[in-house]
Write a structure and sequence with these properties.
The chain is of the alpha/beta class. The protein folds into 2 domains: 6-245, TIM Barrel, CATH 3.20.20; 257-348, Tetratricopeptide repeat domain (Serine Threonine Protein Phosphatase 5, Tetratricopeptide repeat). The chain has helices at residues 38-50, 71-82, 97-102, 104-109, 119-125, 128-141, 190-193, 203-206, 222-227, 257-273, 277-290, 295-307, 311-324, 329-348; strands at residues 6-12, 55-61, 85-90, 112-117, 146-151, 156-157, 179-180, 185-187, 212-214, 244-245. The strands form 2 sheets. Strands 5-4-3-2-1-7-8-9 form an 8-stranded mixed sheet. Strands 6-10 form a two-stranded antiparallel sheet. The mean pLDDT is 92. The structure holds iron/sulfur cluster.
């Protein structure tokens, strides 16, 4: 057994985020929309075990990990194989009765949930009081889960990069956040791990020799690499200064609404495909509270009513979708289905 161990090891479920925080690699307009499977990490986690490099917890991050199409499977695969504590980090955009109920299995598998509360996300959830209410509901419904909430508005750490070398005179807490990438490389910190997503970062930072340890090819002393401080990259990064700045979103691009709509529509489809129409309807209703002008969600609601045999109500929702967006592909398809397949039922119901 090594004398060293990781308290936690960070891995990414997705690269993208619904929030557009200024100074975050995963919010970069050029960041990839990439989702990872748990299976991509298994060879490298197995390799760490083979090299007797212990880790106590796996921290699943993003981007925003709740945008993953099957986060419960992702977490379950890792938990079953390595029997470690599982941590999740999220901005909590999914907090609601429908969201907490939908993620029941995922939350049962999770030991620690870090929630960063951003003003724009809290507003969508219903305001700070509503946000707090749902956090308390999470704690009440999942007493095993340690939920840690951090208000980000006044505690955003400045992160910028500079070609001119800085004098590094403080330890950076990020240097303790070792990341494992899906290609088998380990990175000393999150900003270094995902700097490739933001092409505007200076080459003096991205060209660091100290940042990565490649489990595929590197046989040098792992813990020597892990303990090195400061890194050559730190001279080109302001994060070690721990300067707190007011949190901001990218000008003109506050949130990726399309990711959130996609997230809700996937939940609706998953619940409906398992015959849980009532739950699917609840999710659609919650999503429409957030996005009252989103035609595709009205179309989903129409399809749910159609599958439930309520052709008149289905027609109403589909017409509402088409009223909002006459070119909404899903609404046109569902309306065509309603007319061609169910017209006799509509007529007999007076629709
Ligand atoms: S100062 Fe920058 S490069 Fe150095 S560990 Fe912190 S975040 Fe990473």
């Amino acid at each position: 057994m090594s004398v060293w161990s990781f308290k936690w090891l960070e891995i990414h479920a997705v690269d993208h985020c619904n929030n557009n925080c200024m100074g975050c690699n995963n919010s970069s307009p050029v960041a990839s929309h990439r989702e990872y499977s748990a299976e991509e990490y298994l060879p490298w986690l197995d390799e760490l075990c083979r090299r007797k490099i212990p880790f106590e917890e796996l921290s699943v991050m993003g981007g925003e990990p709740f945008l993953h199409s099957d986060l419960a499977h992702f977490v379950q695969t890792l938990k079953m194989r390595y029997r470690k504590r599982m941590m999740l980090s999220s901005n909590g955009f999914w907090l609601s009765d429908a969201g907490i109920r939908y993620h029941h299995d995922l939350l049962m598998l999770t030991d620690v949930l870090f929630i960063s509360r951003y003003p724009n996300i809290a507003k969508e959830v219903g305001g700070n009081d509503a946000f707090e209410y749902w956090v308390n509901e999470l704690r009440r419904r999942h007493p095993h889960l340690h939920v840690d909430v951090r208000a980000m508005e006044h505690s955003w750490r400045e992160l910028s990069y500079t070609s001119e070398p800085l004098i590094v005179n403080k330890h950076c807490f990020n240097a303790e956040c070792t990341n494992l990438l899906a290609d088998g490389r380990m990175a000393r910190c999150g900003p270094g791990a995902y700097a490739h997503l933001d092409h505007s970062i200076c080459p003096e930072f991205t060209g660091s020799n100290d940042m990565f340890y490649d489990l595929k090819t590197d046989n040098s002393d792992f813990w020597m690499w892990r303990k090195r401080w400061p890194l050559d990259a730190c001279k080109h990064c302001t994060h070690f200064k721990a300067t707190t700045v007011r949190w901001k979103v990218l000008p003109g691009a506050p949130r990726h609404r399309e990711y959130e709509v996609e997230y809700h529509r996937r939940m609706i489809a998953n619940a409906a495909s398992q015959g849980r129409f009532e739950q699917a309807t609840e999710i659609a209703t919650d999503a429409l509270r957030r996005f009252p002008d989103e035609a595709s969600l009205f179309s989903d609601l129409g399809l749910l009513r159609l599958l439930d045999g309520d052709y008149v109500e289905a027609k109403g929702w589909l017409l509402k979708a088409l009223h909002l967006d006459g070119a909404c592909r899903e609404a046109l398809q569902n309306y065509a289905l309603l007319i061609t397949k169910y017209r006799p039922d509509i007529q007999s119901n007076g629709g």
